[in-house]
Amino acid sequence: MYFMLIKKLRRHRHLLDLARADSGSIHFYLEPIILNELVTEIGGMAQQYNNRTINIETGAEKVIIKADINRLKQVLLNLIDNGVKYSEKEITIKVEKIKETAIIQVSDRGSGIPLAQQNRIFERFYRLDEAKCRNTGGTGLGLSIVKTLVEGMGGKISLRSQLGEGSSFIISFPVYCENLLC
């Protein structure tokens, strides 16, 4: 009963977020965030909750971006949740800095997404497999919300997937440089 209520609340929150985004009234409270620390925290929480191996690769170099911490947590938890739903194996979350770009990559080793369907994956209400979605409770809103939130915070998201090998969602943000020292 409790988990059904949580799923219902999440679905309502997704619809509310999309309505706010459509009307231009979604607000972001951007602040400097150390991605290494956030990803370690979220990955640890998700591992406890899902009882699934989540590999976290953050490297030694601090990677700082400017984003809304609560919205970024929502994005990461949604991507991890998808990995748990659609993959039997471990999930990897990787943080790296390439020049002036911060990269967060959430990867699973599931069945992958067919190439013909990859360009639609971020559309509202789009679901790959209706039968599987009935079992997992998917609404087809999660990835649309993820994209809306990432872009609203000034980032970009893309997908790299191969059948039989899994999927990687790649989020990129400009690196935040305090006092122009990066």
Defining traits:
single chain; 182 residues; alpha+beta; Heat Shock Protein 90; two-stranded antiparallel ribbon; 6 helices; globular; transferase; kinase; histidine kinase; EC 2.7.13.3; HATPase_dom
Low-confidence stretches: 130-134
The top level CATH class name? Alpha Beta
Strand content: 15-25%
Main beta-sheet annotation: 5 strands, mixed
Structural class: alpha+beta
- Give the CATH architecture: 2-Layer Sandwich
Q: Number of DSSP strands?
A: 7
Q: Nearest-angstrom radius of gyration?
A: 16 Å
Enzyme class: transferase
Keywords: Kinase, Phosphoprotein, Transferase, Two-component regulatory system
InterPro entries: HATPase_C_sf (IPR036890), HATPase_dom (IPR003594), His_kinase_dom (IPR005467), Sensor_HK_Regulatory (IPR050736), Sig_transdc_His_kin-like_C (IPR004358)
EC number: 2.7.13.3
Explain what the structure shows.
It is built from 6 helices and 7 strands, in the order H-E-H-E-E-H-E-E-H-H-H-E-E. The chain has 182 residues and is of the alpha+beta class. The protein has a single domain, classed as Histidine kinase-like ATPase, C-terminal domain (Heat Shock Protein 90). Strands 2-4-5-7-6 form a 5-stranded mixed β-sheet, with helices on one face. Strands 1-3 form a two-stranded antiparallel ribbon. Helix 1 crosses helix 6, helix 2 crosses helix 3 and helix 3 packs antiparallel against helix 6. The N and C termini lie far apart (49 Å).
